[in-house]
Write a structure and sequence with these properties.
The protein is an alpha+beta fold. The protein folds into two domains: 6-215 and 345-430, Zn peptidases (Aminopeptidase), CATH 3.40.630.10; 217-342, Alpha-Beta Plaits (2-Layer Sandwich). It is built from 13 helices and 18 strands. The strands form five sheets. Strands 1-2-6-3-7-16 form a six-stranded mixed beta sheet, sandwiched between helices. A four-stranded antiparallel beta sheet has the order 4-5-18-17. Helix 2 (29-40) crosses helix 6 (144-159), helix 2 packs antiparallel against helix 13 and helix 6 (144-159) crosses helix 13 (413-430). The longest helix has 18 residues, at 413-430. The radius of gyration is 25 Å and the shape is elongated. It starts with 5 loop residues before the first helix and ends in a 9-residue tail after the last helix. The model has no long low-confidence stretch (mean pLDDT 93). Pfam families: M20_dimer, Peptidase_M20. Keywords: Hydrolase, Metal-binding, Signal, Zinc. This is M20/M25/M40 family metallo-hydrolase.
Length: 439
């Protein structure tokens, strides 16, 4: 397997980047034809979007997730992709849609989407509604709208015989909103695919004038403290000490004072229980505690999250947290554990080079220049699993909208057409027969 470094990627993309730094040129004849084809297919793309939005695919509705995945089988087979379904029964999830088209022109691409939503089957927010240029419904932006952009960008190219020699892998996961555990099983296929390509593109919802070139990673941490159970009259004495709750307070305060100012690093203690008798369910993030004001607390538990911009930042923060936990108050004990979740999509030279190409496409379409995002304002996503293994990655290529994960989720309908045209031209430029090659 060839390893593509960021430095090599910049050399590979240099001709495209140099062109991107020039004033945007008019679309070439094939590119103008691509945009026209996107327009011709626009109504059909909206009809398919309405169809899949009306299929409930909350993460744990396995049947619904599979039904949405099945809706993409025939369209991708018509584009010449080999399609299969990756079962995820081992992690209690529906599975992943997987499609591959072999070729040798330009860069090898991985295109990423997801089929599931956060909305349960028995909820109230279950169907597509349209009012002029605005649509509402579960997943219209997060991210069934992005899945449609992905498909119809490829369809526009295929309609014009411009996809014949492209090397493209598509994965639409079935559990992005609630990832199956362990991660090494639920994201095995995505990581494996990333290791075989050069560039990864994700189609989560976009923002005006912005794409995602970096995302922070996320992981979990749990602190458990212990103390001597005794009458409160003896607290702070040599035999009784400070108790579990004071020890927990010390740890949280020192973590805050030590790490809170570090750029892009955040750590949130989301749940705390403490007292004489403590029960905590890690999977449900739910607990209960019993105690009395005249009894020194015997146990406390905090469950939290950590977000970081790089693996180096994550590991440095974890080491500092361990040091803080180990410095106990009198007659107390404490331990901290960590659980990996999403890696970081770190800023890179390769991502910046890819941004320049995407921005050139956007300007050529009259959509304006594109800027990279502020990673502190974006959550984790599946692109983060691919990013460490490719030369360049980008997210936020889907349509615009808002209020994701709420019953007010909405989609700007014209942005579906704009995002599809932009994605189609970006894929075209990256997979041309005469495009720079990865060697």
């Amino acid at each position: 397997m060839k390893t593509i470094t960021a430095a090599v990627l910049c050399l590979i993309l240099f001709p495209l980047v140099a062109a991107a730094q020039e004033p945007p040129a008019a679309l070439s004849e094939p590119e103008a034809a691509i945009v026209a084809r996107v327009e011709e297919n626009f109504d059909a793309s909206l009809a398919m979007l309405e169809e899949i939005v009306n299929i409930n695919s909350g993460t744990m509705n396995h049947e619904g997730v599979r039904e949405v995945g099945h809706a993409f089988v025939e369209p991708f087979e018509a584009l010449g992709f080999d399609v299969d379904w990756i079962d995820q029964d081992d992690v209690n999830r529906a599975g992943h849609f997987h499609a591959v088209k072999k070729g040798d022109a330009g860069a090898r691409l991985l295109l990423i989407g997801h089929l599931d939503t956060v909305f349960a089957k028995d909820g109230d927010f279950l169907e597509w509604r349209r009012d002029g240029d605005v649509a509402t419904g579960p997943g219209v932006v997060d991210m069934k709208g992005g899945d449609i952009v992905l498909l119809y960008a490829l369809k526009a190219l295929d309609d014009l015989d411009l996809l014949n020699d492209a090397a493209i892998t598509v994965i639409m996961t079935g559990d992005e909103e609630m990832t199956g555990k362990p991660i090494d099983i639920s994201r095995k296929a995505l990581i494996k695919a990333a290791k075989r390509v050069d560039i990864a593109l994700n189609f989560e919802g976009g923002g005006e004038g912005e794409v995602v070139t970096s995302r922070r990673g996320s992981s979990g941490w749990t602190v458990t403290t212990t103390g001597v159970r005794a009458h409160s009259s003896g607290i702070f004495s040599e035999d009784v000490g400070a108790g579990a709750i004071f020890e927990m307070a010390r740890i949280l305060d020192e973590i805050y004072e030590t790490l809170a100012a570090e750029e892009y690093l955040t750590f949130n203690p989301g749940v705390i229980v403490g007292g004489t008798d403590v029960q905590y369910d890690m999977d449900a993030t739910r607990g209960s505690a019993f105690g009395k004001t005249n009894v020194v607390a015997q146990k406390a538990v905090v469950d939290g999250g950590l977000r970081f911009i790089s693996e180096e930042q994550k590991e440095a923060a974890r080491e500092k947290m361990r040091e803080i936990v180990e410095a106990h108050r009198p007659q107390t004990g404490a331990e901290i554990t960590f659980e990996d979740s999403y890696p970081a999509m770190s800023p890179s030279e390769g991502n910046e080079a890819l941004l320049a190409v995407a921005s050139s496409v956007s300007e050529a379409l009259g959509q304006g220049a594109l800027a990279g995002n502020d990673p502190s304002k974006r959550g984790a996503a599946d692109i983060s699993f691919a990013a460490p293994h490719v030369g360049a990655s980008m997210d936020g290529l889907g349509p615009e909208g808002g209020r994701g994960h709420t019953p007010e989720e909405w989609l700007d309908i014209p942005s579906v057409r704009d995002a599809t045209a932009r994605a189609a031209l970006l894929i075209y430029r990256l997979t041309r027969e005469d495009a720079p090659r990865f060697e």
